[in-house]
Amino acid sequence: MSVLNLRSLAIAGALSAVLVPTSFAAGAYHSTTSEIGATYHPDHINQATRAQVASDLDKAQKNPRWSSTYSRGAPWPAAGSGEPKTRAQVNAELQAAMKHPAWNSVSRGAPWPPVLTTGK
């Protein structure tokens, strides 16, 4: 390969790296493999300002567990919602759910009937 070909190849590679638009998960557009080329997801746009994000990060880094756990991607603990259930209570709830007529389809991945999910 000649020097001219190598130089042309290097210039083409550099230009394509600079000019090709990139798609980030935080953006509203995500590339697809279909003819459309991209899909628009307005709910993926981060509405927080840079100052808010910096403030949230600073607050998180002040947590004593930041350096050992959270900075490595561990989930934040969920807030407690009262007294924890006993094993017997959980088993009683499971047995009651298994007696429901919709259990066979729900246990295979179907959603609960709307009447049951609204609490009525």
Question: What are its keywords?
Answer:
mainly alpha, 120 residues, 41% helix
Account of the protein in words:
This protein has 120 residues and is mainly α. The protein folds into two domains: 3-72, no CATH class; 87-117, no CATH class. The protein contains five helices and two strands. A two-stranded antiparallel sheet has the order 1-2. The protein starts with a helix and ends with a helix.
Brief synopsis:
The chain contains 5 helices and 2 strands. It is mainly α and 120 residues long.
Topology:
Elements: H1 3-19, E1 29-31, E2 38-40, H2 50-61, H3 87-98, H4 103-106, H5 114-117
Antiparallel strand pairs: 1-2
- Tell me the strand order in the biggest sheet: 1-2
Overall structural domain count? 2
Low-confidence stretches: none
* Major sheet size, sense and barrel closure: 2 strands, antiparallel
CA-based gyration radius: 26 Å
Rough shape?
A: extended
Tell me the series of helices and strands, N- to C-terminal.
HEEHHHH
Question: Can you count the beta strands?
Answer: 2
Report the sheet-strand fraction: 5-15%
Secondary-structure class: mainly alpha
| Percent helix range | 40-55%
Overall pLDDT: 75
Distance between the termini: 76 Å
- Number of separate helices: 5
